[in-house]
From TrEMBL:
Domain of life, per lineage: Bacteria
Descriptive protein name: Membrane protein insertase YidC
Gene of this entry: yidC
Keyword tags: Cell membrane, Chaperone, Membrane, Protein transport, Transmembrane, Transmembrane helix, Transport
Signal sequence region: none
Length: 608
């Protein structure tokens, strides 16, 4: 019976870990977001003496909340059109505040709206990117130099539409000898390049600091799931910094009335911004050029509805001599966190840009799992098939260890008659019983714990694959076959309406009855676990027998709420394990009577 105890120990450990995970990290629907009301002013950029960047568009008396069309109409605009993006740039402030991701839709329905990433002030969830120049006073009390800010009215100097290989140049004259230009370009994916120049036609040198920031207003809409980071993030001289929205509120640096902040000096390379589950907007100053990174939070005068979160980069001060021109360039990413896309930008000098994806503690597993999945998917064209093939590869890699474990289990099974004789001989003397059993193990070179290792090693792989399925956009809306149209979501079929045969909708997975609303894949998972148990006769101990009997069905309901891709992996893993164990045990001379065990199981239940 020792091999069954080993199996029971491994199964209980697996069950305990997954149960703990399920309890600590239950699936949660997105939290409702309060209606947004624009803030009265933006937070100022952070050099000493720098004025606050006011937002005239949100002055007192402005509407509390507008439709997107109304907010967009408040400023002249330059269209943005690429194969993957559409939107516009507001000439007021030269803000990038209107952006749609054409390759992604809100739902799996082909006619659903495309994903909206950036939105202007005045809408429910303002999210935008601003660039500008900060004047640096040359003497205390000196009059500030007029510089372009978030509300400056720019005019178009060249270009009538921003597109791939179609840059747009905007210009603004401050009336005191300084002419500012902003050339904006975009590549075929999601990277904008903003080149700012200033020409000094005056008689005195001027000192200016170029800056850029990504801002979100109101309470950002989040998934609110513990294993996923959403909020501020950046990499500064090789160090990853993550600050969720609650942490941003608790910053301790003083940034002025109602403002808290954290400043991070960057010596050579870095980037920062805000990330959602699948999307992000970030700024990347020039490679090998230092800057000051600042995370800010401004408390709203009316609570959460007009608070502001900001990730800001301030470049070194430049002095522009009379008749001279100075320039500064910053890249701004606004789009989907596609691994191949952001890896290419990483290769172009944005250090650790792929760490915008939340790889988690098992990053040494999640990264190669995703890379391997994408490679296989590129070969077969179907993510579900790629998951099954990945399972085969993982099982092949673990096969030497599995072979040793199943050989050890077979040896333990063959030792059962000897162990029964020892039990009869020792009677109630437990010390002598243990001594003789351990002596038998040493003599036969048997390891009663060997059977636990394969299952225990699969636990981090299980969690890593779950992490990949949950956080990576490549899994979003990825179809398998038939009714499985999104491997990142639970199986949509339900036993409660006989998988669509009955004319009513099944409860959602986020409802109380949702745990019983399991689909075809979770049921197949339970069956596959049940079949694995039938490789061995039922244990004689009533407690062990009860645990074994309930284990597959408890897992079936628990994992029924997980992503279909993960359940598909688990089914494939169970069936491959079943075949491996059956073949190895037979090769070791162990009699394996699966059908007989199944029949005996049903007969006992029928008699009971």
């Amino acid at each position: 019976m020792d091999e069954q105890k080993n199996m029971l120990t491994a199964a209980v450990l697996s069950f305990a870990v997954i149960a703990l995970w399920f309890i600590l990290f239950p699936p949660e629907p997105p939290q409702p977001v309060p209606a947004e009301q624009p803030a009265v002013s933006a937070v100022g950029a952070g050099k000493a003496g720098a004025p606050a960047a006011g937002d005239a568009a949100t002055a007192a008396g402005a509407p509390a909340l507008m439709t997107r069309e109304e907010a967009l109409a408040r400023s002249p605009r330059v269209p943005v059109r690429t194969p993957r993006l559409s939107g516009s740039i507001a000439l007021r402030g030269a803000r990038l505040d209107d952006l749609h991701l054409l390759d992604y839709r809100e739902t799996i329905e082909p006619d659903s709206d495309t994903v909206t990433l950036l939105s202007p002030v005045g809408t429910e969830h303002p999210f935008f990117i601003v660039h500008g120049w900060l004047p640096v006073a040359d003497a205390p009390g000196a009059a500030p130099i007029p510089t372009p800010g978030p509300n400056t009215e720019w005019r178009v100097e060249s270009g009538d539409e921003l597109g791939v290989d179609k840059p747009v140049t905007l210009v603004w004259d401050n009336g005191q000898g300084l002419t500012f230009r902003r050339k904006i370009s975009v590549d075929e994916n999601y990277m904008f390049t903003v080149e700012q120049t200033v020409t000094n036609a005056g008689e005195r040198p001027v000192a200016l600091a170029p800056y850029g920031y990504v801002a979100r207003r109101g309470q950002p809409e989040t998934v609110n799931f513990y294993i996923l980071h959403e909020g501020g993030l950046g990499v500064f001289d090789g160090t990853l910094v993550e600050l969720d929205y609650d942490e941003l509120k608790e910053l301790e640096g003083d940034g002025g009335p109602g403002v808290v902040q954290r400043k991070i000096p960057v010596e050579r390379n870095g980037w920062l911004g805000f990330t959602d589950k699948y999307w992000m907007a970030t700024l990347a100053p020039p490679h090998d050029e230092g800057f000051e990174a600042v995370f800010r939070y401004r408390r709203g005068a009316r609570g959460e509805i007009d608070q502001e979160y900001r990730a800001e980069s301030i470049l070194p001060v430049v002095t522009v001599a009379p008749g001279a021109t100075a320039s500064a360039s910053t890249r701004a990413f606004a789009g989907a966190k596609e691994y191949a896309t952001i890896r290419e930008y990483e290769r172009q000098g944005i250090e650790r840009f792929t760490d915008a994806i939340d790889w988690g503690w098992f990053f040494f597993l999640t990264k190669p799992i995703l890379q391997l999945l994408l490679f296989i998917k590129g070969l077969v064209g179907n993510m579900g098939v790629a998951i099954i093939l990945l399972t085969l590869i993982v099982k092949a890699a673990l096969f030497p260890l599995a072979y040793k474990s199943y050989v050890a289990m077979s040896k333990m099974k063959m030792l059962q008659p000897e162990i029964e004789k020892i039990k009869e001989r020792c009677g109630d003397d437990k010390v002598k019983l243990q001594q003789e059993i351990m002596a038998l193990y040493r003599k036969e070179k048997a390891n009663p714990a060997a059977g636990c290792l394969p299952i225990l090693l699969q636990i981090p792989i299980f969690f890593s694959l779950y992490k990949v399925l949950f956080v990576t956009i490549e899994m979003r809306h990825a179809p398998f076959f038939g009714w499985i149209r999104d491997l990142s979501a639970p199986d949509p079929s339900s036993i409660l309406n006989l998988f669509g045969l009955l004319p009513w909708d099944a409860p959602g997975h986020d409802s109380l009855l949702g745990i019983f609303s399991i689909g075809v894949l979770p049921i197949l998972l339970g069956i596959s676990m049940w079949l694995q148990q039938k490789l061995n006769p039922e244990p004689a101990d009533p407690t062990q027998k009860m645990i074994f009997a309930w284990m597959p069905w408890i897992f079936m309901f628990m994992l029924g709420q997980f992503a279909s891709g993960l359940v598909l992996y688990w089914i494939a893993n169970n069936m491959i394990t079943f075949i491996q164990q059956y073949v190895i045990m037979r090769s070791q001379g162990v009699e394996v009577d699966v059908l007989g065990n199944v029949k005996r199981s049903f007969k006992r239940r029928k008699r009971g």
